[in-house]
Amino acid sequence: MNESQANKTITYKNIGEIYDTKHKALDDLVGVVSGLTAEQLAYHPEQGGWSVTDVLEHLSIVEGGLIRLITSLTEKAAAATGPVTSSHSFEVSLEPHLERSRSEKYITRENYNPTGTLPAADAVKHLREIQDAMDALRPRLEPVDPTLVRFPHWIFGPLDLAQWLGFLGVHEERHLGQLRALIASPGFPRSRNV
Of 93 and 61, which is predicted with more confidence? Predict the structure, then answer.
């Protein structure tokens, strides 16, 4: 986790704040990887770890699953909320989970590991499509109470819909920090100014 994340408190008070964080995270991620050469995208650190392309594929896999989960939870929250005409206010925090992640290292589940078969450009395209799907879901999210429905995270336990939404941006930010560290590492190919 990078220093700005380490000192950042993540509490959301509405869907708009969650969306703003997610959009910024993807914009920053795309900005960091645009213009990298094929050699840079494929570089694996000597001590082991994922390449830039691997990280992008991982994000694509995880977020593809998350958008399906979020869509399902949105339908359940709509049923639980009932008919409403305005947005719900709420306060939801990811801080306990972030605090834990600052001191723990996680190894992703096997089905979320990169396969090495998805080119970086395709992974970025898929991440943008997922964000478009999330944007299309927003009108259905706005009138529901996202704290009414939960689904368990494999590490953090039950998260409500608002926390799952927030997790998308936080997860991207976490891997953005990983990418920045990889690009700044001594062995990273320097065929452009990074």
Answer: 61
> pLDDT grade, residue 99 (50/70/90)?
low
Stated pTM of the model: 0.86
CA distance readout (Å), 18 to 11, 161, 186: 9, 11, 35
H-helix or E-strand spanning residue 5: helix 3-6
Contacts of 102 (CB under 8 A, 6+ apart): 1, 6
Nearest to 52 by CA among 111, 123, 132, 129: 123
Tens-digit pLDDT profile for residues 126-181: 999 999 999 999 999 888 888 889 999 888 889 999 999 998 888 899 899 999 99
**SS3 at position 159:** strand
Using an 8 Å Cβ cutoff, are 84 and 140 in contact?
A: no
Element (H, E) at 187: none
Beta bridge partners of 159: 151
Tokens 């941006």 locate to 169
Q: Alpha-carbon distance 187 to 194, whole Å?
A: 13
- DSSP assignment of 43-107 equals ---TT----HHHHHHHHHHHHHHHHHHHHHHHHHHHHHH-S-SSPPP--EE-HHHHHHHHH----
Helices 15-33 and 161-184: angle between axes, nearest 10 degrees: 20
